[in-house]
Design a protein that fits this description.
Blueprint (H helix, E strand, L loop, with lengths): L2 E5 L2 E3 L5 E8 L8 E6 L6 E6 L6 E3 L7 E6 L4 E6 L8 E9 L2 E4 L3 E5 L2
Parallel strand pairs: 2-11
Antiparallel strand pairs: 1-3, 3-8, 4-5, 4-9, 5-6, 7-8, 9-10, 9-11
């Protein structure tokens, strides 16, 4: 079955950087578009970044454009989210996601806290 396992994140100072990883299994990874979402306390889940397949087109929310970079390594079944110039408002649980067979799949999420 589809499994998505995120890692990375943690506590980061404002202006700092971190990289999230998501290892996928249970499906042919290179065929599918992958996404990163985030959810802050008391807020709705927000789409942050998308990387398509094939083609690798990258699409970003306005709030992270120019600061975050999504990428994928099809040989490793992994999607990444490089997060630079982090702000306190980036604090959230980050989830990777794919859509397969009319079902949305999410990982368990990884916490990113931006604070001094």
């Amino acid at each position: 079955q589809v499994q998505l396992v995120e890692s990375g994140g943690g506590l980061v100072q404002p202006g700092g950087s971190t990289r999230l990883s998501c290892v996928a299994s249970g499906f042919t990874f290179n065929y599918y578009t992958m996404r990163w979402y985030r959810q802050a306390p008391g807020k709705e889940r927000e789409l942050v970044a998308t990387i398509t397949s094939p083609g690798g087109e990258q699409i970003y929310a306005d709030s992270v454009k120019g600061r975050f970079t999504i990428s994928r390594d099809n040989a490793k079944n992994t999607v990444y989210l490089q997060m630079n110039n982090l702000k306190p408002e980036d604090t959230a649980v980050y989830y990777c996601n794919t859509y397969k067979g009319s079902v949305l799949y999410y990982g368990q999420g990884t916490q990113v806290t931006v604070s001094s």
